[in-house]
Amino acid sequence: MANKILIVDDEPHNLDVLDNCLEEAGFEVRMTNNGKAALKQAPYIKPDLILLDVRMPGMDGFETCRRLKQNAVTTDIPIIFITIADNTTDKITGFEIGAVDYITKPFQAVEVVARVNKHLTIRHLQKQLEAKNAQLQDYIYRLEGLAALGKATHEAENVTQMMDRAMQVTLSVFNCDRAWLLYPCEPNAPSWRVPIEVTTPKYPGANFLNIDIPMKPAMAEVMKDTLSATAPVAFGPESEHQVPAMIAEQFAVQSMICLAIHPKIGKPWVFGLHQCTHARLWSDNEVNLFYEFGQHIAVSLGLSISFTELQKSEKRLSRQHYHHLIGASKPMQLLYQIIDNVATSPVTILLTGESGTGKELCAQAIYQESQRADKPFVVCNCAAIPENLLESHLFGHVKGSFTGAISEQKGLVSQAEWGTLLLDEIGELSVAMQSSLLRFMQTKTFSKVGSPQLEKVDVRLICATNRNLLAEVEARRFREDLYYRINTVEIKLPALRERGPDILLLATFFLQKFAKQEQKAFQRFSLEAQRMLLDYRWPGNVRQLQNTINNIVLLNSGQVITAEMLSSKIDVNTGNPKPIQPPVENGAEPIVAITAGNTLRPFKDIEKEVIVAALKFCEGHVVKAANLLKISQGTLYNKLRRWKNNG
Q1: Domains plus CATH for the chain?
Q2: What is the pTM of this model?
């Protein structure tokens, strides 16, 4: 579309000359011969630039310029003065009142077109910068709002306090007159109530807080519209939904926005905002942010209600396992309840805790309890993939995009379509990869490596790390905006030493599993062995316990695991695991070794068992296993190669 130029000049000849040269240059030209007409036309036609004569009868160019700059519609339009008088005073006056340039008559057509193009380009760049600044301000506003909401809900002691604080933050962030939570949200109920409401200043309706109000058709209709929608529903002028007269009169409402909240426990709620002072139009950014607020409040509400329910009933502390998670302790019961509440929400979850606490099993439980359980569950270990291959691994690549890309490859994100993607060890991502992940989370779109085409997916993200991400943010190794993106809900898995009797429950489970697997007769632990298991701090958590029991079963025989068998693997006094050491005498390889039951066996017969156990204990890491066995890496590699060649 051609740029529009408005020419204001009282000389017909000048108008003709300027009209001809500007139209030939491709501009759409409008003309008038006096300042008053220009003030009327400019707000209507909204030109991209104005050429304004200084000396005109009646209202001169300077006064016309002043009035154009005072009008909000025309204040940003570039104005170039044209005049026959070439004096410094006039030029200074022109620039002071807002003109961008000054052309002296007689002018050349080439000069006029060049000056016009120059200032149109400058104005275009200014608009781009203003748009980017507006986007940045919206983004900062959103992050600050979500951070304030998260802080308010996480520090609350009970449901009422949490929701009251959430409403206060919402009211402040959206600069509204009233924030409220309606309960129960049952359109067919005889009455309804608003248990949580924050109003400032006190508009009519505040006296209805937490009392039963008779249900009327208009209110029932609002509930039905909100419950059936998957996004916030806006009510007000120029919206599809109008504020019902009953609500407008009884609660002094001119505009409102509502969102249904479905906690895991209890009936649905409706989260809403009222604007009472004026009729408000809700922007797309406001609607999207309100949706995110609602999702956060839904999860927080569910968690708080669940915690309250746990305190009321000890019966809910009875589960000994939850999918593949095992444990009957209170920390694990609370974990199960948290999973119950967050599983059905689409929010991103951050799993934290020490290494070996079962973060991947927790992610699988969330997935299995979610509505995506019949779709793929895909795991990406961010620490195990070389940095230069991680983007391709996640998003895929096209043939020839890099050396070795011999065919097109789907990434894990595409493989997890409609399902769940676990990003394990997310704290190991490079800053560059963090930027790519943030962009994907913001837009739900990505491009394969080597392809300009954007693809869109629907994937639920779960992230896991054993790092302190807040410390990583402070050290500038992890992006703050990404941290708040992935940390909608944080679930911290308890360390094994915090789980008390779960240690014996897990040890018994592993004993039965490995005894059956290795066809051994082990059935239980001696009392002294049980005390050792409970007294040990288990720095490697459940993974270390599993490997320890596997090792003992593999290298011993009998029906009872004794304290002597355990003491060869763990040191209760230091809390550290003991290394596996094959017996040696005078630096030479022994000919025989004594095993459980005082049976003599040739050392070469059990050598392979010891090495296999060491590799399992070290999770396949050959260098660590060699150090643990006190042999050289070369020796261990040679033995493994020899056994492989011999079948």
Answers
A1: 4-126 (3.40.50.2300), 156-310 (3.30.450.40), 316-494 (3.40.50.300), 497-645 (1.10.8.60)
A2: 0.46
